[in-house]
Structures are given as C-alpha cells and as structure tokens.
Amino acid sequence: MKPLRWFPLLLLLPLLWDRAAPAHSQAPAGEPTILLADEQFASGPLRDEPAVRAFLQAQGSFLASATLEPVKGIPMPAVQSLVFLGEAYSVSPALLLTLADMEMGVLSAGQPTRAPQTLADWFRQRAMILSRWFYDAYYGIAGAPNRPSPGGERVPPAGNAATYALRNYFFTHVYGGGEPVAALAAWEELLQRRYAATFGPPLGGKARLAPPTPADWQKLPALRLPWPGGEVWHLTGGPHNFDGSKRLPLSGVDFQPAEITGCNPPIAADEWVVASAPGLTIDYQTHWVKLDHDGDGDAATGWQTVYGHLAYRIPDGAWVRVGWRLGSPSCLGGYAGGVHVHFGVKYENVWQPVEAVRLSGWAFERGEEAYEGGMVREGGVTRQSCYHSEQPLMDCTHAAVVSDNRARIRRTGFGLE
Q1: How far is Cα 39 from Cα 162, in angstroms, rounded to an integer?
Q2: Other CB atoms within 10 Å distance of the CB of residue 8
Q3: pTM (whole model) above 0.85
C-alpha cells in the first residue's frame, strides 16, 4: 500500500482560496464575480423529497409524476431522482430545475417537453459535469474556464466554485456564438433573475465554501465503523468518487456483510447499518440516510455522515446515538453490484476526501483505480478492497473488518431498548 501522504496536504487546501471574494455579480473587469452562492449551488432550498414533491406539484410540473434515471439504466421517480442527484453530486435540485426550465421549460409544463430518455440523460449528465467543475474549483485545481478562443473583453475571474462551474457550463453547453463576454453576461443575468423569482436570492447563504480547516476537522466527532460491533463485514470498495471515477473527491467507501454476495435478494433484511456517531436524521431520501452531527438540522453547516443503499430506513427528525440502527444494507438507491452500504462524510453538505477520515482508528488509502485501495491502522494492520480492476471476480481474502461499534441490538426496529 502507498503511505498516507494526502491528509496533511488536505488541511492546507483552504489556503488556496481567497475567502474575501466580493459577493456580487457586477464588478469591474478583472475583479472576481459571484453568480450564485456556493451554498445555493450545493444545497439550495429544496433538500429532501417532500420539499421537491410539494414544489413540483405547486408548479403544476409534469416532473411531479415523471420518471428519470439518476444512474443510467436505473429508473426512479423524478422527485427521488432530483434529491439523489443533489446528494450525490452536490448540485442542488433548485439549480438543476432552474437550468432545465431555462432550456426546456419543465416547471410550468403539464406535459413532458422532451422525450423521456432525453430528459433522464439531461439531468444526470448536467449534474455530473457541474459537480466536476465545482469540485475542481473547491479543491483549488481549477484551470481557466472553458470558453471560445481569446478575443474581445476578458471574462472576469470566478469568485467562487459555483461561478466557475456555471461559466464552464455556459461555454460548453449553452453558448451559441457572438461576443463571448456579452453573451455570458446576458445568460448570467437571466439565470439570476429566474432563480430569484422561483427560489429566492441567488447570493443567499454562504457565498463561498472552502475545505475544512484543521480547527474544523477537530469538530468532526469520533467515528465508528457503521455496522454492529463484533460483526465481520468486507471492504468491497476502496476510495472512489460518487460517479465511480478516481476524480477528486474520493469521498466514499463500500462495505458488505461478510456472508452476503450479489443482489439476490436485494435487501439483507437481517443485517443493519448503524450510526457512526450521534446525529440528527435530515434531508429525507428513500434509500439514503444523512446524519447531521451538530444537530441544527441544517446540512449547510458543520459535519454530516451519509449512508447509502439502505432499505427500511429510519425516519427523518430522529436523534440517534452511536450504534443505533439506520436501516438494512441493500442494492437499492443507485447502482450496486451487491448488497452494501456506501459511506461518506460531508462538511457544509460538500463531500470530503475519505482518506482524511478515520473509522474506529482505520485510515483509508486510495488504489491505482477507483474502488481499489484499502485500510490501515496503527501497528501496520491492513485490509485490501475486494475489488481489483484487472480481476473479473471480487477477491475478499484480505478485506474482512470487525466492527467495534455497539454490540448487536436484539430488538427489531430502530434505536435501543
């Protein structure tokens, strides 16, 4: 395995950003400008399925009863899909709906405005590409915005990650010719006006998000492995991006009960995923659970842990303790080659590198490819992911991990006796 060399660097990433960027959209040439607050980009006002459903129904939009594919080939109701895409890619349902309405008129239309597959592909692909540009800027690895060849007025620098992502989006997916800066300014004005009319101030909330500082990391509670103590599960997926790539952030890892393989049946009803730390369940999704660890119910502040692919999930609004049941691992809620839980950590609702996280003293190491890699803890004890890109079958020989979370809860249902 490679030595742990990324964690110290991750703590320095906030220094790559100037936190004093002005929060306004009109500024002299050369001065950083902000089109949309990072908080609106990554979170926005629609964060759970009930809120998205109520909004679409109030608008009279066909999306309220439509079906999309947030993961290609896996259909879900549009309401569930929009929240899934927001959680997965840190691109808020409010922003996706604003862009879709500008391009396809989806909010006021009572009937589909595009073929079902075209709509499904549009939402999935837009969320993915916007996310990539957002995280490139968030982690300080962004280059110059993609735009036509130089000529005429220079595009002002982006003052935050959201603006960088949206300008790349404009020049690669919207721009149709003419003077680039003038066309961009007109589009930005329209986007701000449409967003404000539907969802509120586009510059509301935190204008600029940045990776957590060392002091912020100290506020992350101690985390335990997310299954009952004494049970053996396998590390079936090492650090990977949510889109399955090895792009930053490598925010998630996958665990599977040791005696279970495949998706037949698709739910391990006798197994439980449990809380890694105390927290409040928020931002309801059908098969994902998010715990808010500062307890204020707002994912845009503080730390969250996320547990994916859960069946029989716990309701929102519940305060849970370490080891309390959250749901059963399954193949539901996105792509899954086997029953498992996808685990990740967010700060201010933005994914953080899992390599900077410790679970019961275990650290994670990336592999050459996404899903490879493993775990290591003090004393040189290691575990290797079951996945290897050059092997046709999973090899879990060195993937077994015993949890030290609370002992198995004997009662059925959630929580403790």
Answers
A1: 9
A2: 10
A3: yes
Peptide bond into 145 cis (omega under 30): no
pLDDT per residue as tens digits for the range 288-297? 999 999 999 9
**Cα 138–chain centre separation:** 13
- How many Å is the Cα radius of gyration of the chain? 21
Torsion from C-alpha of 395, 239, 318, 278, nearest 10 degrees: 100
pLDDT tens-digit readout, 247-262: 889 999 999 999 999 9
Q: Which residues of 310-348 are buried (b: 16+ CB within 10 A; e: fewer)?
A: bbebbebebebebbbbbbbbbbbbbebbbbbbbbbbbbb
Q: 250: closest CA among 236, 238, 262?
A: 238
Which amino acid type is present at position 401? V
Quick check: 398 pLDDT over 80? yes
CA 161 to chain CA centroid, Å, is: 15
What gap in Å lies between CA 225 and CA 331, rounded to an integer? 20
| Structure tokens that stand for 317 in this block | 């609004």
Residue 112, classified by CB atoms within 10 Å of its CB into exposed (0-12), middle (13-18) or buried (19+), is: middle
C-alpha dihedral over 166, 167, 173, 175, to 10 degrees? 140
Quick one: how far is CA 234 from the chain centroid?
Answer: 23
Pairing of strands 279-282, 341-347: unpaired
Distance CA 220, CA 358 (A): 10
Return the SS3 of 326.
Answer: strand
Task: Measure the CA–CA gap between 357 and 375, rounded to whole angstroms.
Answer: 11
Residue of 135, 370, 324, 307 whose CA lies nearest to 228? 324
**In contact, 47 and 91? CB cutoff 8 Å:** no
**405 vs 322: CA distance, rounded Å:** 7
DSSP 193-255: HHHHHHHS-TT-S-S---PPPHHHHTTSPPB--SS-BT-EEEEEEEEE-TTSSSPSP--EEEE
Length of the chain: 417
